[in-house]
Specification:
The chain is an alpha+beta fold and about 110 residues long. The protein has one domain (about 15-105). Helices cover about 35% and strands about 25% of the residues. The protein is built from 3 helices and 5 strands, in the order ββββαααβ. It has helices at about 40-55, 60-70, 85-100; strands spanning about 10, 20-25, 25-30, 35-40, 105. The strands form 2 sheets. It has a 3-stranded antiparallel beta sheet with strand order 2-3-4. The protein has a two-stranded antiparallel ribbon with strand order 1-5. Helix 1 (about 40-55) crosses helix 2 (about 60-70). The relative contact order is 0.23.
Length: about 110
Amino acid sequence: MESHLSGPRWRVVEPEAIDWREWGDEFVVHVATRAETHLLSAAAGSILRTLIDGRRALTLDDIFATAMDDPANSAGSQTLGMTAAERESLQAVVVDFERLGILVRSAA
């Protein structure tokens, strides 16, 4: 899936160093290179899983579209686009992951 919209892209710094487990609506993520463990919400876990599975840099629109197509997402692919609130929420999660050193901005 290629985004038609431009904007910053993010990728997981070292996907092989991330071990995660899902329990119900929570994710526990261990980042081996940083010796850190984080408890994530279902939304944040879905975003991280999307970026790990994608193995390439994604825009916010790419992340949102992929997460909406995820069979585990109850909204399914019926969602046509992000609302302003959804964009802000998604951006906040991505910025947190960037701050934690899990994601990095990428040129492509």
